Amino acid sequence: MIHRLSFEEVDRALCDIMSIPFKGPDYRPFGGKVVLLGGDFRQTLPVIPDAGREDSVDSSLTRSYLWNFCMVLHLSQNMRLLPNSINEEPFFDGMSFAEWTLNVGNGSIPGRSFHVNQPADWIEIPTQLLIEPSDDCLSTIAAVVYDAFAENYYSISYLAERSIVTPTNQNVLELNDHMLAMVPGSVRSYFSCDTVHSDSNDAAAISSEYPTEFLNSLSFNGYPDHQIDLKVFTPIILLRNLNPSIGLCNGTRMMVVYLGHYVIRAIIMGGTFDGKTVAIPRIVLSINDYRWPFVLKRRQFPVRLCYAMAINKSQRQTLQHVGVYLLKPVFSHGQLYVAISRVKSPAGLHFLILNEAGIPSNYTRSIVYPETFSELEESATTALG
Fold first, then answer.
1. DSSP class of 275
2. Which of 53, 192, 265, 348 lies 20 to 30 Å from 99 when distance is taken between CA atoms?
């Protein structure tokens, strides 16, 4: 979900372009232009470092002055689930899979607490979705989601319809490394060029205090790492908008077909540009992280392996087979709902859950902030005309 401040900046810009006053009786949202926004408030909220519940909820569009000008329209048909998953016999506790998924997103599934002073937000996952863990959890979930991998590792259709999702980037890295080792062929490693941005305060002093080796060790959410290991036929996900007109958008999944020095060639998996071969160059990314007193410039291919991906990154994906890897529970609003709602049918959804003691469990956290979407049923209170 996009932070409400981003919408408000667009509103101010369009008002300025259209010469419409930002305040007063002549104000028109977005400069008088009709803007169509699509999304699901059950999904994750904008990521705000070290933010609490109140700050996260406050970042939602429903807390913006623009919300008073919005008219809420609801889909009348589920566009992701297959028809037999919508109209099926009761899936769990008298609910169909579609109803159960929506109830998870709405926070209306009865939960329980396992410790004193712990919120009662631990819900039961249906037994038919559970994977029985072994001593090697990585191999267990990989074998279920990527069954017959040795015969299909190079198949675009096979890779396009499956992924493992997990809350933490550390688990994502472990899963991707595990899958990469199973692909035949040699690894090609790409290393970034990292420098302190010249516009940073005291850039020269900072450069001497933070050597290149330290800059290389830094990892950031949503940015490529210093070292990217790839093989031909591995799936990757794009981390930046490069050229939307040919399908190179943030979140596009592709299969690598050529690993060159200056470009990576890949075939787009899914969507309007399914099957299109594209070239991905290195680009310079500016990373401004509040933890460090400088802006980092990283020149690297804007991609990551995506046999597994973070739950937040999996939004907008529609898949046939999804493994939800929960060695630790989710930690923010909507994450469990996002993980569940990636699939077209419950037959393709698999959970591997461990509790705090590392013991297999059929309970996991489902964090929902109902106040985020409590106003969705309200009509616009201000006319657009």
1. T
2. 53
CB 177, CB 210: distance < 8 Å: no
CB–CB of 304/237 below 8 Å? yes
**What residues contact 381, with CB distance under 8 A and at least 6 apart?**
68
| Residue 82 to residue 344: CA distance in whole angstroms | 5
- What's the rounded Cα separation, in Å, for the pair 245 and 167? 31
Which residues lie below 8 Å from residue 180, measured CB to CB, with a gap of 6+?
A: 187, 229, 230, 231, 234, 305, 307
Q: What are phi and psi of 89, to 5 degrees?
A: -65, 160
Angle between helices 137-145 and 169-181 (to 10 degrees): 70
Rounded (5°) CA angle 131-222-238: 85
Dump pLDDT digits (tens) for 254-312. Answer: 999 999 999 999 999 998 999 999 999 999 999 998 888 889 999 999 999 999 999 99
Average pLDDT by consecutive 10-residue portion of the chain (385 residues)?
94 96 93 92 88 91 92 79 64 84 93 88 95 91 97 97 96 97 98 86 76 94 96 98 96 97 96 96 94 92 98 92 96 95 93 92 94 66 38
Distance CA 82, CA 158 (A): 19
Q: Are 253 and 306 in contact (CB under 8 A)?
A: yes
**Separation of alpha carbons 161 and 155, rounded Å:** 10
Percent composition of the chain: helix, strand, coil (DSSP 3-state, to 5): 30, 20, 50
- List, in order, residues 6 or more apart from 66 with CB less than 8 Å away: 4, 7, 8, 11, 29
If one counts every other C-beta atom within 10 angstroms of the C-beta of residue 320, the result is: 18
DSSP secondary structure, 104-115, as one string: HHHT-S--B-SS
Contact 252, 238 (CB under 8 A): yes
Residue among 308, 350, 287, 309 nearest 133 (CA): 350
What letter represents residue 379's amino acid? S
The span from the CA of 229 to the CA of 14, in Å, is: 43
